[in-house]
Amino acid sequence: MANTIKIRARVSGDTTTVKALISHPMETGLRKNSKTGEKIPAHFIQEVVCEHKGDAVLTAQWGPAISKNPYLSFRFKGAAKGDTLTLRWVDNKGESDSIETQIA
Amino acid sequence: MTNMKRRTLLKGSLAAGAVGVAVGSGLLAPRTVLAAWPKEAFEANSVDSALNSLMGQSQLEGSDKIEIKAPDIAENGAVVPVSVETSIDDVESISIVAEKNNTPLTSAYVMSPRAEGFVATRIKMSETSSVIAVVKAGGSLYSTGKEVKVTIGGCGG
């Protein structure tokens, strides 16, 4: 599960804007395979954490009602250009991924 | 070329299946869950019980300091872009709720003191309903709603 995250972080003044796209099926567990009629098991991201200097600036808790290939954007203060930002996610099957990026 | 066609067909049939299930099923599949993840809140069937389970209260105070951006009409309920922005100070969390989804709570965002009152994502909606942004600040819940008309439901469980 490498490279599932695309992230951009840009600072303007004191505010850093973060935009992230994650490749993930986000299955609700309600859909059926139309050929076999079997339910497709739930498979969705439950938690996304974004950290700056060891501080979790945003923790997103997601249910299955977040769209496939999720998009997340938020803003926070107190970071400078060149700082490292870490974003990681964990899903209901225990799979996970993380990425580090430099704030531009 | 054959492969391309196959993919289109597959996509089409999957989408059709999704709508059927969204309409017909209120069941929840078993899930393995993280300790911190608020399972009960995400599996709650009403807005009140979801908020009670998540934050211990469900009394909402309307606020004009919260702005929701979402389309008036969403052609595809599987992908409804929603952003919430608030000028309320000391926001502890923002939750996005789709009122008529089987399980209304879509997501909750816990903000550190450094986070600004803004979050944007894309949610699934099973049918036309109100999208409610709930902002927790200073121990109280503030909210604003916006009606989003959904033309094709998006398996919103």
Automatic annotation (TrEMBL), chain A:
This is Thiosulfate oxidation carrier complex protein SoxZ. NCBIfam families: SoxZ_true. Gene3D superfamilies: Immunoglobulins. Coiled coil: none annotated. InterPro entries: Ig-like_fold, Ig_E-set, SoxZ, SoxZ_dom. It comes from the Bacteria. Residues 8-101 form the Sulphur oxidation protein SoxZ domain. It comes from Thiohalobacter thiocyanaticus.
From TrEMBL, chain B:
Pfam families: SoxY. Gene3D superfamilies: SoxY domain. The gene is soxY. NCBIfam families: SoxY_true_GGCGG (TIGR04488). It comes from Thiohalobacter thiocyanaticus. Residues 53-155 form the Ig-like SoxY domain. This is Thiosulfate oxidation carrier protein SoxY.
